């Protein structure tokens, strides 16, 4: 840590970026939280040079909310190249990209394909790097369930998942930032491995969701065929400690899982308390 004067976190106001910024600052590091909110745009390159001045490490957690293949590829390829160019100019000592477990093994998923372009930009940049590939976050369960819902049935691929909490991912990334570049992938996973169907059934138990969960051998992972172990790490370098059962009891988890229903429940509870 003594060799690190400043860390820049791209996407520093997001789910993972924000948590990692907080952890790094708690350790006494000078951290720049960079996002479009404060004038740093990886897609256009705006603000990168100023943000990287005097920095030693750049952590890229930036993302784009789209399912359009062209939009995804344009964002991750262009942003990756802009970041690499600015890092070379600033003399960055370590670049860290947050990526996904299975991105190199799953073919046909537009998001995964676009992330490989971002990874390639880091590998080809000439800057020492680490590709931190994480499994799916607990926070993504509603999106997963929604993506495979047809009416009252959720039909999922017959594949394993080893999900992890966003807080544990931030802890893992903090460790990566403080360490030496790996010049290759580094894997993050959760404490338990089970089938996708098992996980979504657990979520529905917590949220009292009445949808039925089934396994569909023909189902793809948002366009990509899966083997049983396609999206779990062969061996995780960092295993999160927060179980789903522990995570699910927190206010953050309830808000992530229930969405608008959580806000309505809190509002009702506040009115009852006021009375």
Strands, helices and their partners?
Elements (H helix, E strand, L loop, with lengths): L5 E5 L4 H12 L3 E5 L13 H5 L4 E4 L8 H22 L3 E7 L9 H14 L5 E6 L6 H7 L1 E2 L2 E4 L3 E2 L4 H13 L6 E5 L4 E2 H12 L4 E4 L22 E2 L4 H4 L3 H8 L1 H15 L1
Helix pairs in contact: 1-6, 3-4, 9-10
Structural class: alpha/beta
Secondary-structure element order, N to C: EHEHEHEHEHEEEHEEHEEHHH
Q: What about the largest sheet?
A: 7 strands, parallel
Number of strands: 12
Characterize the structure shown.
There is one protein chain. This protein is of the alpha/beta class and 275 residues long. It has a seven-stranded parallel sheet, with helices on both faces. A three-stranded mixed sheet has the order 6-7-11. Strands 8-10 form a two-stranded antiparallel sheet. The protein contains ten helices and twelve strands. Helix 1 crosses helix 6 (166-178) and helix 9 (251-258) crosses helix 10 (260-274). Strand 4 (94-100), helix 4 and strand 5 form a beta-alpha-beta unit. 41% of the residues lie in helices and 17% in strands.
Write a brief caption for the model:
The chain has 275 residues and is α/β, with parallel strands linked by helices. The chain has helices at residues 15-26, 48-52, 69-90, 110-123, 141-147, 166-178, 196-207, 244-247, 251-258, 260-274, and strands spanning 6-10, 30-34, 57-60, 94-100, 129-134, 149-150, 153-156, 160-161, 185-189, 194-195, 212-215, 238-239.
Key phrases:
7-stranded parallel sheet; 3-stranded mixed sheet; 10 helices; alpha/beta; single chain; 275 residues; 41% helix
């Amino acid at each position: 840590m003594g060799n690190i004067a400043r860390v820049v976190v791209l996407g520093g106001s997001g789910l993972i970026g924000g948590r990692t910024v907080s952890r790094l600052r708690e350790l006494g590091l000078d951290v720049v939280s960079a996002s479009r909110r404060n004038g740093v745009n990886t897609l256009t390159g705006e603000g990168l040079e100023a943000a990287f001045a005097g920095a030693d490490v750049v952590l890229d957690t930036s993302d784009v909310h789209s399912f359009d293949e062209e939009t995804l590829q344009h964002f991750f390829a262009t942003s990756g190249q802009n970041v690499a160019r600015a890092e070379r100019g600033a003399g960055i000592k370590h670049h860290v990209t947050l990526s996904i477990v299975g991105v190199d093994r799953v073919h046909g998923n537009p998001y995964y394909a676009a992330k490989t372009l971002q990874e390639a930009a880091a590998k080809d940049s000439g800057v020492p790097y680490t590709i931190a590939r994480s499994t799916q976050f607990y926070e993504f369960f509603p999106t997963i369930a929604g993506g495979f819902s047809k009416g009252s049935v959720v039909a999922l691929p017959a594949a394993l998942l080893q999900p992890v909490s966003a807080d544990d991912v931030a802890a893992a990334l903090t460790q990566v930032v403080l360490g030496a570049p790996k010049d290759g992938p580094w894997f993050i996973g959760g404490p338990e491995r089970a089938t996708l169907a098992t996980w979504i059934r657990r979520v529905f138990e917590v949220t009292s969701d009445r949808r039925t969960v089934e396994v569909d051998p023909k189902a793809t992972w948002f366009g990509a065929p899966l083997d049983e172990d396609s999206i779990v790490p062969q061996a995780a370098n960092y295993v999160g400690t927060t179980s789903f059962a522990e995570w699910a009891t927190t206010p953050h988890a309830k808000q992530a899982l229930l969405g608008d229903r959580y806000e309505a429940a809190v509002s009702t509870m506040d009115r009852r308390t006021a009375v």
